[in-house]
Structure formats: structure tokens, C-alpha cells
Design a protein that fits this description.
The protein has helices spanning 22-35, 45-50, 60-79, 93-105, 119-125, 130-135, 166-179, and strands at 10-15, 40-42, 83-87, 110-115, 157-159. By secondary structure, the chain is an alpha/beta fold. The radius of gyration is 16 Å and the shape is globular. The two termini are 27 Å apart. The relative contact order is 0.22. Bound molecules: adenosine-5'-triphosphate (ATP) and magnesium ion.
Length: 183
């Protein structure tokens, strides 16, 4: 039987406010990693909510359940050699810590990136119109406005996207992975 070198997987979690730039950066990073021959999966929040987390809402409990489910899937992928990029808000520190702990059990790298775009900039971008809906009273419980966002205390990387292009931000994440020997 021949043995082949096993790819090193990891979870790269992009946490931050709505419109911070998580999906944009995840796609750019994912495309680059794929082009380089890595096995890559992008687990985006919206898609996941339609399927894996269908029926869950935006209460603290449901947000935690959503993050734990995504964390489980991502850890399984990462443990099996996939670079799993997760552009999901994950507003609560304790649920992110539980995901980190799940990775630690199997010795699987977990790289937390804070997409730290200030709320003023996010609400200007307002890609999905959520900030406008919150302001007009059509919606409540918007993360960073009238729902909590607990910033990571010790992330691997902090991105100030208001001062960078999307590709500069994606390059910075790539560099953080390179520093850790993951790419
Ligand atoms: N440096 C940057 N990195 C990422 N996005 C940026 C940057 N500069 C500007 N942008 C713009 O900010 C917007 C971010 O939207 P995106 O959908 O990626 O946000 P998100 O964090 O995934 O939001 P949500 O939580 O609502 O899904 C895009 O229009 C993107 O072009
Ligand atoms: Mg997104």
C-alpha cells in the first residue's frame, strides 16, 4: 500500500458585523486557495441558514445553535484535510470559544479572523439593506446595532477593511495562514 502526504486542513473563521466584508474576503481567499490546489470549502452563513439551520431564528440561543452546527461541520472538514473558510457573524464569544475547543480536541487548527469594520462603515455599505430596515423599524435585533456583538479578545488577525481593498484583506488572511504553515 502506498501512502500519500495528507493535506493539513484548518478552519478559518471570519467573524464581524453584517456588511463587514466576511463573504467578500472568504470568496477571494477561497478562490486563491483553490487555484493553488488546496481542498477548500466556504461555509457561508446565508446558505447554511437555508438548509443546515433552517428554522432557526436570531435569538441568542438560535444564534448559538447555528454557530455550533457550522462549527461541527467545519471541524469535520478541517480534520479531513479541507481548508474550511467560514464567513459567519458568530456574535457571542462563548459560542466561538466552544468551536475553538471542539477543534482543540482533535488538534485541528482554528484560525479566528476579526473582520473589524466599524458599524458606521458597515451601515454605509449596507449590502443587504439590513441597517436601513433597522433604522426604519422594519427589523430589530440587528447585530452591532440593537443586538450584541462581542469582539474577539485574541484573534489571529484583525482586519480594518475600511482602510484596505478586498484583495488586500484576503491577502492578509492568506499571510496569516502561511505564517502558521497552513498554505
Ligand atoms: N477590504 C474589504 N474587504 C471586504 N469587503 C470590502 C472591503 N472594502 C470594501 N468592501 C465591500 O464591503 C462589502 C462587504 O459585503 P459582504 O457581503 O462581504 O459582507 P458580510 O460581512 O458577508 O455581511 P453579512 O454578514 O451581511 O453576510 C462588499 O460590498 C465589499 O465590496
Ligand atoms: Mg456574508
Amino acid at each position: 500500500m502506498t501512502t500519500t502526504a495528507r493535506a493539513q486542513g484548518a478552519t478559518i473563521w471570519l467573524t464581524g458585523l453584517p456588511s463587514a466584508g466576511k463573504t467578500t474576503i472568504a470568496r477571494l481567499l477561497g478562490d486563491r486557495l483553490k487555484a493553488e490546489g488546496h481542498r477548500v470549502e466556504v461555509l457561508d452563513g446565508d446558505e447554511i441558514r437555508r438548509f443546515l439551520s433552517a428554522g432557526l431564528g436570531f435569538s441568542k440561543e438560535d444564534r448559538n445553535t447555528n454557530v455550533q452546527r457550522i462549527g461541527l461541520v467545519s471541524e469535520v472538514l478541517a480534520r479531513n484535510g479541507v481548508l474550511s473558510v467560514v464567513p459567519v457573524i458568530a456574535p457571542y464569544a462563548d459560542s466561538r470559544e466552544a468551536v475553538r475547543a471542539r477543534h482543540a480536541v482533535s488538534g485541528t487548527p482554528y484560525v479566528e479572523v476579526h473582520v473589524a469594520t466599524p458599524v458606521e462603515v458597515c451601515s454605509e455599505r449596507d449590502v443587504k439593506g439590513l441597517y436601513a430596515k433597522q433604522a426604519s423599524g422594519e427589523l430589530s435585533g440587528l447585530t452591532g446595532v440593537d443586538d450584541p456583538y462581542e469582539p474577539p479578545v485574541d484573534p489571529a488577525l484583525v482586519l480594518r477593511t475600511q482602510e484596505q481593498s478586498p484583495s488586500e484583506s484576503a491577502d492578509a488572511v492568506y499571510a496569516a495562514l502561511a505564517e502558521r504553515g497552513l498554505v
